[in-house]
Design a protein that fits this description.
Aspartate Aminotransferase, domain 1, Aspartate Aminotransferase, domain 2, 7-stranded mixed β-sheet, 16 helices, 41% helix, WH_DNA-bd_sf, DNA-binding, Tscrpt_reg_HTH_GntR
């Protein structure tokens, strides 16, 4: 076995370095290219490097996260951060922006009448008068907007009182507030082994330790979750039961009941990310209905309605929790835009929102059918409804090499490293809604299908 080099690496930072975290990530890449860092080398612990450089720990955390995003390093829970054993070849031909399939936003639908109705909803909020423009939105939303949010959630979670519902600045804003309330720096948050990158970013910002819980084809493993709760003493568990990002798994009801039972036994909060929950025509009962006394249910509207609104509803266990969270939102800038909240309420009240959901479902169904025809089904994990898929890579491909090969051809996707908390199989997420048209989608999927037939070392010649 090769001996690991001493932990003596320090970044060489130029005087005009710009943001420190980017300069450190650049230095990692430059030293890999120059041979000063070799594949498998372990980087210094983040706290040690922060002390050496006299900078904040969070800056080094962001630097290592940026290096991981560039596919330069891998982070292994409990072991450290290592230079990738098979670094990507340098790009030879790059066509920037040719095909974008990395951002997971809803597909554009072709329904001029519905689009006109959406624009009309924007204009109609003028009836709310000058207060809408000249007054701050109260933290958590107005009483009216919270009532509308309760009605929106009631189709899946019955018997919701409006005093348990808060309106937040998107899912990320709600998640930031909930994590800030439930956990302190140094606390542990249990997460699925593959998790939402936004949680990883918030954990670094809030200095929260993430502990992965293994998954199988039905989602998180309840027995493993129970073991983590006993051994790691997490303060909460974050998960995405419906159309999991990135694996597309929807946790069946029996698995949800088992997860809820584990959390009830340990009396630990559940943070249920329901950003995709409105997309399926029928989905199993949310955890918020199975363990209402423990669950903070965050239902974003960016995936099922419009990313432009930046609105989410947070359902808390009780009115007292909602009041506590309101105070945190006031401190963390979680207040939603008055205009966004007003438009969202108008669309829901007029039935426009439900029609938009149906239009997104219909377009997503067409795009899933295209993907099923163009990519090998044996390697695909894809939902019946939704607009992203999980492509498992055959050996000897790694996700970094596959992402890099497509990047050389001008196509953007996201590798498993962006989602991994610990080790995970080689796979990539492909966002079917990111392409503006179905033709662009076919072009991108064709690139991916073609690259799968090649060997990794050939990817640097893709044009």
């Amino acid at each position: 076995m090769a001996k690991t080099r001493p932990l003596s690496w320090k970044p060489r930072l130029p005087a005009n370095r710009g943001p420190m975290y980017l300069a450190i990530a650049d230095a990692i890449g430059e030293d890999i290219e120059a041979g000063r860092l070799a594949p498998g080398d372990r980087l210094p612990p983040m706290r040690a490097l922060a002390e050496w450089l006299g900078i904040d720990f969070t800056t080094v955390t962001r630097a290592y996260a940026e290096a991981a995003r560039r596919e330069l390093v891998d982070a292994e829970v409990g072991r450290g951060t290592f230079v990738r054993k098979r670094p990507l070849p340098p790009p030879r031909t790059v066509t920037v922006g040719a095909v974008e399939m990395s951002m997971n936003h809803p597909p554009e639908f072709n329904d001029p009448a519905l689009l006109a109705r959406m624009w009309q909803g924007l204009r109609s909020v003028e009836e709310r008068g000058p207060d809408l423009l000249m007054r701050y939105q109260p933290p958590g939303g107005t009483a009216h907007d919270r009532e509308v949010g309760a009605r929106w959630l009631a189709s899946r979670i019955p018997a919701i009182a409006a005093d348990r519902v808060l309106v937040t600045a998107g899912l990320q804003g709600g998640l930031h507030s909930v994590l800030s309330m439930l956990l302190s720096p140094g606390d542990t948050l249990a997460v699925e082994a593959l998790t939402y990158p936004g949680v990883r970013a918030l954990a670094a910002l809030l200095r929260i330790r993430l502990v992965p819980v293994p998954m199988d084809e039905h989602g998180v493993d309840p027995q493993a979750l129970d073991a983590v709760c006993q051994s790691e003493a997490p303060k909460a568990f974050y998960c995405m039961p419906t159309l999991h990002n990135p694996t597309t798994i929807t946790m069946p009801l029996a698995r949800r009941e088992a997860v809820a039972a584990v959390m009830q036994r340990h009396n630990l909060p559940i943070i249920e990310d329901d950003d995709y929950g409105s997309l399926p025509t029928e989905a199993p009962t949310p955890l918020a209905a199975l363990a209402p006394n423990l669950t903070y249910h965050i239902a974003g509207l960016s995936k099922c309605l419009s990313p432009a609104l930046v609105v989410a509803y947070v359902l808390t266990p009780d009115a007292w929790s909602a009041a506590r969270l309101t105070s945190v939102m006031r401190a963390t800038s979680g207040t939603v835009s008055s205009l966004s909240a007003a438009v969202t309420s108008r669309w829901i009240e007029e039935g426009t929102a439900e029609r938009v959901v149906q239009a997104i479902r219909a377009e997503a169904k067409e795009r899933l059918a295209i993907a099923a025809r163009m990519l090998p089904r044996s390697q695909l994990v894809m939902p019946e409804e939704g607009f992203h898929l999980w492509l498992r890579l055959p050996e000897p491909w790694t996700s970094g090499e596959f992402v890099g090969g497509l990047r050389n051809a001008g196509m953007g996707i996201v590798g498993r490293e962006a989602f991994s908390v610990g080790s995970s199989p080689e796979a990539v997420r492909i966002a079917l809604g990111a392409s503006a048209t179905r033709e662009q989608l076919r072009s991108g999927l064709g690139m991916a299908a073609d690259l799968l037939t090649q060997l990794p070392m050939m990817s640097s010649t893709v044009v």
